[in-house]
Amino acid sequence: MNGDTLTHMAVRIILGIESSCDETSAAIVSIDGDQLRVLSCRTAGQDDLHAEYRGVVPEIASRAHLDRIIPVVRGACAEAGITLKEINGVAAGNRPGLIGSLLVGTSTAKALAWSLDIPFVGVDHVIAHLVAGLLDQPPLQWPAIGLVASGGHTSLFLMRSPMEVQLIGATIDDAAGEAFDKAASILELGYPGGAKLDALAESGDASIVPLPMTRLKGGDFSFSGIKTAFALATRDPRYAGRSADLAASFRKVVVAQITRNLALALEEHAAPSCLVGGGVAANALLRREVASVCTERGVSLRVAELRWCTDNAAMIAGAGALRIAHGECDGWDLVAHPLSELARGDRGARRRTS
Ligand code: KG4
Ligand code: ZN
Description:
Helix content is 40%, strand content 20%.
């Protein structure tokens, strides 16, 4: 089937596969115009396999993906009530991520698309985190400022459409999720601890422990200084036993830096809309603060639903569906790649997501 045939089809059904890190996920999404609807999503996590190492072990992750990928695809089809033959295209996150993990999802997607004689597209996982804010949502007015805050990225984008995305700011050291996980580890909350630190912070007083706020020029982010200040504060006898207050202070300065840069970008580009995604977009304070930044400026906000913040295949299927609906298709020679196509080296370059 070629792109011409597809552009004449009204509603298309797309299978998405995500395996960039330690979640094996498959989802079915429909696209009608630019309207994306999630019909199913099945995700198998691996936190139990990696917890003792306090981080993802790449070789363990890729082996676990191999065991889980087919059951997860079957589960997503069953949940959507469709057979493989009803699918019009297959999308896989092919970058960025752990190369062995990416290969499992990318190869599975290619094999399925080839055997079903339907288009295959590779999707940039970072772009997919932005598209998560468009799933089951009303249409958005472009351009938008996109924020991705996850375990691997903290980046701001100018989006002229979901297909035309330009990097305008990125972290120069840790990603926000990585910083949350390290702070949570210092408080012995377990791995990955971002969500646990967030929950603990809800009962803390953020004014007790003073932590410095990092302000970089030009929309970039840095979290390593905050992390060091936090590590020192946890050893300060004045704050002994004040885990909730420490968590609240840490969360406050991380979120303040993100929302400050977001507000500056919205003003600089006079964008009418804002899209927010990534695991850290599940953070309760970040969600509240981003909402007030946008309300104050009359900006329409789409924050990914909680279930689409952390890694999932619905966002991959959504990003792939937008490409396939525009007649795009990748070759069988498309490779998995550890870096995003919108990585720092491409800063400032306007890139289509294809
Ligand atoms: O997007 P994601 O699933 O994976 C990457 O693409 O990196 O993000 C995972 C990250 C982890 O660092 C996790 O601790 C963090 O998102 N996270 C949170 C919260 N929920 C997940 N960080 C802060 N607050 C949360 N509620
Ligand atoms: Zn992610």
